[in-house]
Amino acid sequence: MISDVPEPGIPGLARPEVVGQGGYGTVYTAEEPEFGRRVAVKVLHERLDGDGVRRAFVRECQAMGALSGHPHIVTVHRSGTTARGEPYIVMDLMSAGSLADRIRRDGPLPWAEVLDVAVTVAGALETAHRAGILHLDLKPANVLVSRYGEPKLGDFGISRLPGVTETTAVGRIRASAAYASPERLLEGHATPAADLYGLGATMFALLTGRPAFVTDTEELFATVARIARDPVPDLRPAGVPDAVCRVVERLMAKAPGDRFASAAEAAEALQGAQRATGQPVTRAVVDGPAAGGPGTTATVYVPRLPPPAVPAPQFAPPPTRVPPRRGRRPLVVATVAAVLVAALATIAFLQLVDRPRSVSAAPSEPAAATGTSGAALPREHLADVAPGVAHPALEEARTVIDGYVAGINENRYADAFALLHPDSDIARSGLEVWAKGQATTVIHNPVLTAVRDDDADGLEVDVAFTSTQSAELGPGGQTCTNWQLTYRLAGPAPGLLIRGARTIAPPQAC
Fold first, then answer.
1. Active-site residue 137, yes or no?
2. Which amino acid positions bind ATP, per UniProt (predicted)?
3. Mean pLDDT of 269-294
4. How does DSSP classify residue 25?
5. Domains and their CATH numbers in the chain
6. Which residue blocks in 331-465 are alpha helix, DSSP H?
7. 152 is in an annotated binding site
């Protein structure tokens, strides 16, 4: 029990005891004398000020209540506000704790048990998705265990309730970034595919005892950079069967389109892994009409499908393409994106030093550019052009790229930053944030392999090159990497500016 926390003052509850505190609220157990049972109560820190916020809270509670009755989703009983105006939710007490408690106490779970849990959670997710509800905070701490030993998914909708998603003054996230998908962290995209990533990330943590991309000492921006950039660590050396590893890797694919099409399809693949490894097949309980299906509900056993073909893990730097302009994003998304830019900008926009652009003041002598290798890049090394490459704007595009990377390699960050399109994500993060990620990179031997018009009055420039950098900024800890990227150059007139980049092929170690 945690002391010095005021009692919640909720009608109908007696003898509350604090059992946990998090970034968004306090968790109690309490007696409910009317029903002769103990329940769990979550009291959120934030008051519900304003009719709109109160309506949002009611909608989310109703959404969570609609899922009650599923055998693998924690039942929500009621909600309201305390005497102090704090919102609360009363739900079933999961007396056996969470799977996060289990791995803290006992270490990694056996892979066969992880498969069993994952099938049940996939069924719960599919039921929620068919009801139009996302979880958005799937992690071991939210997979709870009843007194009968049954896993149940909890905290549906909690991450979307008013006041839950927050950041501190230094930009540290109170939400569960370690289990969030790259697109959720980078762009705020909330889709069923983000929940599938969370399922894979949860499986990885249950199999190893820790999240895939978290170390004990690194800052948040480094963790987010690894999530967006690094391949899923191979679980096979730890004795996890290949059939299980392939499902985890597909669930945690960087691109949402490379994951399973639905939680039901993921359940099928997990059941296929059970069959392939000689394990009993777990039932996936799915309730609700399938998308595009008839408006009836049924509890179904998800049948086996052949194991899906799993694409090679994608560990390229995240695209810096500007997403469609929407309304104001949640504060947590904007903060994470800004912090991530500092870690990834070196990887996202890279070319070799050459002559400066007109906005950059060229030094009279070659400036030493030091990186991980400690070698200086001479100014006479211009970006080469592959045979057969031709375009009316080839020289202008080459000058922009050369000037940008010259600024990075020579630590003239203000000059390089001036070549970023003002609407790009990196430019919006600000010079100071962006420059922090540039200190260790040196770019070698770039070759422009194609220049073409894009669909919106700009150019696309394909470039192959080698980079050296500190292990913290290299994919998979690499200090030397071969890249193939496409850069998008766009106006405003009179010149072109760098608006984004994407990978052509996964980066390879030198």
1. yes
2. 42
3. 84
4. E
5. 14-276 (1.10.510.10), 331-509 (3.10.450.50)
6. 331-348, 394-409, 413-417, 425-429, 431-435
7. no
Alpha carbons 216 and 209: distance in angstroms, whole number: 13
Question: What pLDDT was estimated at residue 158?
Answer: 55
Q: Which two tokens mark 484?
A: 């193939």
- Other Cβ atoms closer than 10 A to 217: 5
Do residues 254 and 314 touch, judged by C-beta distance below 8 A? yes
Element (H, E) at 444: strand 442-453
Structure confidence by residue, pLDDT tens digits, 152-166: 998 775 545 444 443
Report whether pLDDT(169) > 50.
no
Dihedral, CA of residue 370, residue 375, residue 379 and residue 384, to nearest 10 = -110
Residues 6+ apart with CB under 8 A from 460: 450, 451, 452, 453, 454, 486, 487, 488, 489
Mean residue pLDDT of the chain comes to: 74
- Would the CA dihedral through 443, 447, 448, 450 be positive or negative? negative
Left, alpha or beta for 31 (phi > 0: left; psi -120 to 50: alpha)? beta
Token pair listed for 51: 């009719």
Cross-strand bridge partners of residue 173: 167
pLDDT band at 497 (very low <50, low <70, confident <90, very high): confident
Q: What pLDDT, on the 0 to 100 scale, is given for residue 357?
A: 31
User: Residue 238: which residues within 8 A CB-CB, separation 6 or more?
Assistant: 207, 208
Measure the CA–CA gap between 510 and 468, rounded to whole angstroms: 9
pLDDT of residue 80: 84
Distance CA(225)–CA(170), nearest Å, equals 17
CA distance 296 to 288: 7
Instruction: Name the active-site residue from 92, 116, 137, 354.
Output: 137
Quote the pTM value: 0.56
* DSSP state letter for 350: -
